[in-house]
Amino acid sequence: MRRQVLNSGWRRGLVALVVGIGLLASGMMQSKEAHACGGFFCSQQDPVDQAGERILFSVEGTLVTAMIQILYQGTAADFSWVLPLPSTPEVSVGTDLVFSVLHQNTDPRFELEWLEGDGCNLNDFCGCMFEDAATGGGNELPPNTDPGVEVLESGSVGPFNYEILGAISGDALFTWLNENGYDQPAAAQVEIDHYVDMDFVFVALKLQKDKDSGDIQPLIVKYDAPNLACVPLRLTRIAAVADMPIYTWILSGTRAIPINYFHVVLNDKAFDWLRCATPSPDSQNCFGWWWGGGPECQESYMSLLTSAIDGANGHGFVTEYAGSSDLLEDKFYTDEMFDLETLRNQTNPGIFMQQMMSQGFPATGVVRELIREFIPKPDDAVLPEECKGDSNFYRIWNIENCLPYMPDDWSFDAEAMTDALSARIVEPLMDAQELVGKHGYMTRLVTTVSPDDMTKDPIFSFNADLEDVPLVRTAQAVANCGDEASSVTLIFNDGSTLEVPGQFEECGGFVPDDPLVFADQEPIAEIQVLEESGPPVSIDPDEVEDMDKQLDKRVANPDHAGIPTTPVEEPAPVGPSPSSGGCTASAGSSCPLCSPPVLLLLVLFCCWPFLRQRVFRG
Predict the structure, then answer these.
(1) One domain for residues 308 and 377
(2) CB atoms within 10 A of CB 529
(3) Dihedral of CA 142/145/148/154: which sign?
(4) How far is CA 475 from CA 25, 51, 113, 217, 495, in A?
(5) CA angle 193, 199, 202 (to 5 degrees)
(6) Are 17 and 231 a contacting pair, CB within 8 Å?
(7) Fewer CB within 10 Å: N-end or C-end of the chain?
(8) According to the model, what pLDDT value does residue 117 have?
């Protein structure tokens, strides 16, 4: 489902936290589309893929950097956004292209190695095609007149004005937010109380008066978090939709784990390999027109993932990748990617736009807003028919015919536009590449969650003893072509098999007799609890609900923040640690019997016979 921020009432100002663009739309893909239609303003360039929350974490000790993606539909005047954090952050902005690159390079891939079985000659079919299987100036801020709310910091970054707020009561903050244009519904008050009680600060954002919703960029916050990386879901639930995907990428020195959520392993047999997997390069041959991917397969995979998470009481994450961050080397930025000096020296706006396109600048909302700012289209009333509308006026091969209608006092400032492109697109990509270069390991953890299940904030820690999780899932398919019946035998990496009766169709692939053969499989291979060292602890499905309550109380140990640990032979016992369901670490120990009063009672209990003898003898 798509999460929408409606252009009416209180929903305009709700927490949007990490809402993203399409799953597979990369900067290069957008650039190709721009070439196809002749400009940056083609209507088909706005992806309509499933939205979800997206956040990139970098964890160095207790220092957390989070890039959060925001999707907003509505007017600039209606936009507001509130984000709770455990400490006062440094605030900056990024670019949506970072998340496009992350999806393009880390979306899970499924490869099927085809083998010829009895009676089959796969060369009789249509053969194989192999492909990459990548499934500003601030406004004056209002004075702080509420004694219960303190404006700790205010300023401007990118298109936003921001205020960092502290509060002594949830009531005071709730009132302040609504009185100052950060509209919050009544249902949000209990969640605001929750974060205020944990001594959180709140980052409140608005768009600057001269900015449009197309100017919105991801927010970057750098802050100290004793409880490490955490997604504050509880406030998000007010405007969330059912089964909303949450994508997290965590950069560190070792594998990241959910500490207060279950870890769920998907059942390979429940994935539709025959329709959605890409033929492996090791295949003897293959057949059919379907080579993996497509919206139907994305929906099928997300349905599988959602069913599995539901089996974990709605509180679970799937690890889709865990391994070296080298797969992102030179993916965000290289020195050869953009030639800003050529743009800076190009005074002809039409040729400037051609060079932008040839260099690969994407057709995103930010780029389009910059084009409108520096090459403002005159009113359609003064333009000929072929220049009316953005898509006509800014079309690469047509803009030279339209520029003569610009006002006489207008001139194109190539240097200023290049500087803006550098600040809004190039520099954030450079920063993302630098961030990846600081860490040798990346974990991608994904879940889907509905509002009723947003009862606790996911907290992530680390475990250096766990194995990597590959990006590419593999299986083998043996084609069996009998005289009276045919089938495909799927062989999985654990040695198990699945026999799928059906029919081979020339250039049409293999059609199972039972179209629900994969959907009817159990979605979960295993539900696990992951500790900060040692192997996974398997949880019986009948124990999930009780164990989920125990997980509510677990918090992360900052000593495990990406630092390799010594392997242990046995898993540590699963036990609760003090917490409150939010992104906070309790001051208490994770050992419930280790507080001084309890230890004193234990000593007295164990030693009382000896002490009594000594006392009475004395």
Answers:
(1) no
(2) 20
(3) positive
(4) 27, 29, 6, 40, 10
(5) 75
(6) yes
(7) C
(8) 72
Report d(CA 226, CA 577) in Å as an integer.
Answer: 14
Residue 118 in domain: no
Give the burial class of 391: count Cβ atoms within 10 A of its Cβ; 0-12 exposed, 13-18 middle, 19 or more buried.
middle
User: Which residue has tokens 């079309």?
Assistant: 395
In-domain check, residue 509: no
What is the token pair recorded at 435?
Answer: 């961030």
Give the pLDDT score at 381.
95
Q: Reduce the DSSP state of residue 550 to 3 states and report it.
A: helix
Query: Is there a single domain that holds both residue 81 and residue 192?
Result: yes
Residue with tokens 């509510």: 552
53: closest CA among 447, 520, 499?
447
> Scanning the structure block, which residue is given the tokens 């700790």?
152
Count helices and strands (H / E) in the chain: 15, 22
| CA dihedral sign of residues 140, 143, 148, 152 | positive
Evaluate whether 22 touches 363 at the Cβ level (below 8 Å): no
The span from the CA of 247 to the CA of 317, in Å, is 10
255 and 385 belong to one structural domain: no
Strand partners, 394: none
Please report, as a single letter, which amino acid is at residue 41.
F
Q: Walk across the sheet containing 441-449 and list its strands.
A: 90-93, 219-224, 63-68, 53-60, 244-252, 441-449, 316-324, 262-266, 524-529, 537-538
Contact by Cβ (8 Å): 64, 222? yes
- Please identify, among 392, 416, 433, the residue that sits at the C-terminal boundary of a domain: 433
Q: Which residues on adjacent β-strands are paired with residue 80?
A: 206
Strand intervals (E) in 126-174: 149-157, 160-167
Domain for residue 16, yes or no?
yes
From the CB of residue 522, how many other CB atoms can be counted at a distance below 10 Å?
A: 12
Question: Which residues of 284-401 form beta strands (DSSP E)?
Answer: 316-324
Report pLDDT for 569: 43
Burial (Cβ within 10 Å: 0-12, 13-18, ≥19) of residue 609 = exposed
Assess contact for 247 and 449: CB atoms under 8 A: no
Question: Do 312 and 216 share a domain, yes or no?
Answer: yes
Q: Are residues 303 and 362 in the same domain?
A: no
Round the CA-based radius of gyration of the chain to a whole number and report it: 28
Residues 197/170, Cβ–Cβ less than 8 Å? yes
What residue type is 184 in one-letter code? Q
Which residue type, as a one-letter code, is found at position 280?
S
Q: Indicate whether 404 belongs to any domain.
A: yes
pTM of the model: 0.80
* Token pair for 115: 């083998």
Q: Say if CB 461 and CB 585 are below 8 A apart.
A: no
Low-confidence stretches of the chain (pLDDT < 70) are: 1-52, 73-74, 118-147, 283-293, 483-484, 506-509, 560-618
- Kindly tell me the sign of the dihedral angle through the C-alpha atoms of 246, 446, 290, 512: negative
- The reply to whether 160 and 260 lie within a common domain is yes
User: What's the number of domains the chain is made of?
Assistant: 3
pLDDT attached to residue 175: 93
Residues 323 and 376 in one domain: no
CB neighbour list of residue 59: distance below 8 Å, 6 or more residues apart: 228, 229, 250, 251, 252, 256, 462, 561, 562
Do residues 486 and 504 make contact, with C-beta atoms less than 8 angstroms apart?
yes
Do 69 and 150 belong to one domain? yes
Range of the domain at 611: 593-618
